[in-house]
Each structure stands twice: as structure tokens, then as C-alpha cells.
Amino acid sequence: MKREQVTIKDIAIELGVSISTVSRALSNNPLVKPETREAIQKLAKEMNYHPNFTALSLRQRKTRTIGLLIPQVVHEFFAQVIRGIEDVAYKQGYNVLISTSNESYDREARNAEELLNGRIDGLLACITKETSSIDHFEEYVSREVPLVFFDCVPDDILSDKIVIDDMDAGFKATEHLIKQGCTRIAFIGGPKALNTNQERLLGFENALKAYGLPVDKKMILHGTSGKYEEGLELSRALFSGDIIPNGVFAATDMLGIGAIKNVKEAGLQVPTDVAVIGFSNWEIGAIYEPGLSTIDQRGYELGKIATNRLLDRIHSDHQLPVTTKVIKTTLIQRGSTSRL
């Protein structure tokens, strides 16, 4: 015979308190005396009580599900973000519905609409490299569905945004190469239109100017994917010409590893002849030889901060001000830049 699920009414009867007191205690409401709260939570654990989220969502007209819309799930950075999101969401009794756009604007727009029609309580989103129109996200704003963007974000929308300081990160990476003795530094980046790429490039240029080094446009290269194969293709010409860079700042770790491959094939040494720093802190960078110096994007922290902000909006009974949270990055030095 199937055992019936324990309810808060059962706990209330057992302890001789009201149902509302049990409900508040299980939500850690400070209005309940500490000793009462502790007794209720202890008994709930002993009785193997689990909240009925289906019933709760019907009473509150909430699904206790948040949507997550990202360009790709196999990207190591997004794996770190997802871990941060889920750690926060599950702790607060929320499920996470993950949808991927595969860097396609059309797919992003369709998935955003489907998530909205699926009655999620809020959405976390990172836009694609193709995204120009944001009408599909404006629908969330017009329906007052909580919406928080992270990492790659649109400019013209009234929504919270959680981003890393890409300009400061670009400056930090380039300054590190300069302090290692590099004087001719190349930049290998992603799509020109992508705001994160633009900010990293601006930081790169600002660092060169700050240290009195020239900005050579012939040493600024842009790709479309940020993948290893693109790093190989883009950087090959850098090490076959008359003027070879002695430093490379790659806007992704995979672009950086592609550049290192070409340095080696040109008969040069890393970091003695050419120092290389990447961006993202993928695990492969730590096991590659030499280890790739990089900028840690702090994806796990970014995911946690974005989810806490979204849940603040979901739980708030009044309109919160729209904010942009900027997270500082961390430079990790490994063998690819250890010249001094």
C-alpha cells in the first residue's frame, strides 16, 4: 500500500501549532521563534516531509521553474554558469529549464517564445552572436515576466544585466604581456559586432597606449566562432611575415591554443619567442603544454549572481530598479607567458 505524503498539517497537529506557523518555519521566516522554528524543521526532517511544489504553484500561480536560454551547452564556460544557476535555483526549490539556440537568432527567438508560453516564472538569457533584433525579449518586459541577461547582453532593453568587465580584462591581459617584455602584441578576437569582443579589444588598445606601444591594425584579427580551427587559420599569417609578434592576446582559450600551434610550427618557442594569453580559463588550457595563461571569466559566480537577481525579482511584491552588475575577472599565469 502506497504511503501518503506528509503534509504541513500533519506536522502542525503533531506539535500543536497552526499550519501557518509550520509554513513560516519551513520558509525560515524570522517571525517564528527560533526554538519553534528549530523544532518544526527537525520534525519535518524526521517525518521525511517534502514540499508539494505542484500544489504550491497552483496556490501561488507560480510554476517554480525558471528558463535558461544560452547559445550552446557544450561550451565549458556555460557549463560553469549552469552549475552556478542550478546550485542557487535548486536550493530555493526551483527547477531550471535549459534551452539552447546553437548561436542561431531564429532558434533563439523561437525558444524564447516557447519558454514564455510554457509559463516559466522568469528567464535567464545570453544572446547569440547573430542577435540584432530583441523583439522576442521585449515581450517578456511587456508581460512583466522577470528577465535577467548575462555575459552577452543586448544594449537597448530595460532589464537587469550581469556581465564581466571585458574592457578591464582586455587591459589586464595585455598589460601582463607587456610586463613580460612583449613589445609587438597581436590581438585575435571573435566577431567584430559582439559587444564582449569590442570591449576586450578596447582594453587591449588602451593598454598598448598606456605603455606607449603602437596599435598595429595589421596585428588585430577577427573571427566568427572563437574555435581552435579558427585560431589556427587566423594566426598562421602572423608567424610567416617579416614582422612577427612577440606576444598574442587571444579572446578565447581555443584561439590561443590555435596560435600556440602555429608558433611551434614556425620553429619558435613559447614563451621565449612568443608569449600567449587566452581568455575563459577552460580546463584544456591547464593541461596543454605549455600551460595557457588566461583570464578566468568566473562563470560559476556569474551564474549564481544572475540567478539570485532573477529570484529577487520573482519574489518581490514591488518593482525593483533595473541594474547592471559588473564582475571583475582574474588573471591566471601559466607557462605560456612565464618569460621573467
Structural descriptors:
six-stranded parallel β-sheet; 340 residues; 434 Repressor (Amino-terminal Domain); 13 helices; alpha/beta; Rossmann fold; four-stranded parallel β-sheet; elongated
CATH topology of the largest domain: Rossmann fold
Please name the fourth-level CATH homologous superfamily of the largest domain: Response regulator
Major sheet description: 6 strands, parallel
Sheet/helix structural class? alpha/beta
Strand tally? 12
Q: Any guess at the CATH architecture of the largest domain?
A: 3-Layer(aba) Sandwich
How would you state the average pLDDT, rounded?
90
Strand order of the largest sheet: 2-1-3-4-5-11
Label the overall shape. elongated
Rounded Rg: 25 Å
Helical residues, percent: 40-55%
Name the helix and strand elements from N-terminus to C-terminus, one letter apiece: HHHHEHEHEHEEHEHEHEHEHEHEE
Which stretches are low in confidence, meaning pLDDT under 50 for 5 or more residues running? none
- Count of all domains: 3
**CATH class (first level) name of the largest domain:** Alpha Beta
Between the first and last Cα atoms, what is the distance in angstroms? 73 Å
Notes on the structure:
With 340 residues, this protein is of the alpha/beta class. The protein is built from 13 helices and twelve strands. It folds into three domains: 8-51, lambda repressor-like DNA-binding domains (434 Repressor (Amino-terminal Domain), Orthogonal Bundle); 63-163 and 299-326, Response regulator (Rossmann fold, 3-Layer(aba) Sandwich), CATH 3.40.50.2300; 166-297 and 331-337, Rossmann fold. It is 43% helix and 15% strand. The strands form three sheets. The chain has a six-stranded parallel sheet with strand order 2-1-3-4-5-11, sandwiched between helices. Helix 7 links the parallel strand 3 and strand 4. The model has no long low-confidence stretch (mean pLDDT 90).
